[in-house]
């Protein structure tokens, strides 16, 4: 399939909300084309470089974002709310447009060969403590899902770690491996908090934030 691309210095996970402020003309054009079509575009993380200069090195795997709400401003800018859907892999970038487009294919998780319920319970338990240490209110903790797939993506999105580590979680091709790796990261970060105190706070809502809607 052909997919418009919105490169960002962040990782969007399936199921997670992503608010965006659209102001550059090329992304106004992208938004207009998406609204005239299926309301979807691809969010892909920038490995290095600056997207504005056109020389950004992009990761190959990203997430399809579906536009859920649009607030058009009087000067043509827009505030939009999107949500991550399926993962995709870029096969090739396509020329001939003011914004980036790619020929891409959707990615499905492959069946895991390991039991998933135990890791999911462990991740949920560890995640509740981790978020509480970062200042999450109890009403947020009570809404953490139990379903392994939704839990895996939520847990990944809450980690206060560097972008390449988040990208690795996005690229993992089955839920059991994703849960196990997330659990290792949560244990590592919880250990840092125990020894050094809270050195971070919850990030604003977004692809790496902790909105549970």
Q: Write down the overall geometry.
A: globular
Give me the Rg, rounded.
18 Å
Percent helix, as a range, is 25-40%
Count of individual helical segments: 6
Give, in order, the helices and strands.
EEHEEEEEHHHHH
And the CATH topology of the largest domain?
A: Archaeosine Trna-guanine Transglycosylase, Chain: A, domain 4
Ranges with pLDDT <50 over ≥5 residues?
199-213
Number of strands: 7
CATH superfamily of the largest domain: LON domain-like
CATH class of the largest domain: Mainly Beta
Strand content: 25-35%
Total domains: 2
Q: What spatial order of strands do you see in the largest sheet? A: 1-3-5-6-7
How would you describe this protein?
The protein has 213 residues and is of the alpha+beta class. It has two domains: 2-107, LON domain-like (Archaeosine Trna-guanine Transglycosylase, Chain: A, domain 4); 117-196, Methane Monooxygenase Hydroxylase, Chain G, domain 1 (Up-down Bundle), CATH 1.20.58. The chain contains six helices and seven strands. The protein has a five-stranded mixed β-barrel with strand order 1-3-5-6-7. Strand 5 (61-72) and strand 6 form a beta hairpin. Helix 2 (117-133) packs parallel to helix 6. The protein is globular.
Summarize the structure.
With about 210 residues, the protein is α+β, with helices and mostly antiparallel strands.
List the defining traits of the structure above.
globular, 2 domains, Archaeosine Trna-guanine Transglycosylase, Chain: A, domain 4, alpha+beta, 6 helices, Methane Monooxygenase Hydroxylase, Chain G, domain 1, 213 residues, disordered C terminus, five-stranded mixed barrel
